[in-house]
Amino acid sequence: MVSFQLQQGEIMETRVERGQASEDEVTGAIERQTSMVPSSLFLGLALGSMAVSAALKLSGKNHWALFVGQWAAPFLIMGNYNKMVKQHGSDATGQLRAA
Question: Which whole number is the average pLDDT over 24-32?
Fold first, then answer.
């Protein structure tokens, strides 16, 4: 639940209740496929990009080192999203349809 203070004493809730939002078929298909990928893969990719970036930096390829080093954050974000979808799902109505 996210709340915003509008004026003194007024609070607006932005909670989405079950059935209020739905994902399209493409999103559902992507999430079904990516949920089969272990979350540790994304951590490994992030660590690998940092290691490759360090090696590139040591070899004097500074621009490539920066380019590859910036991959770590997106890999960690994708891993976090993957973990949340596995634990909570992204579509309450899709879970109802599957049941």
Answer: 80
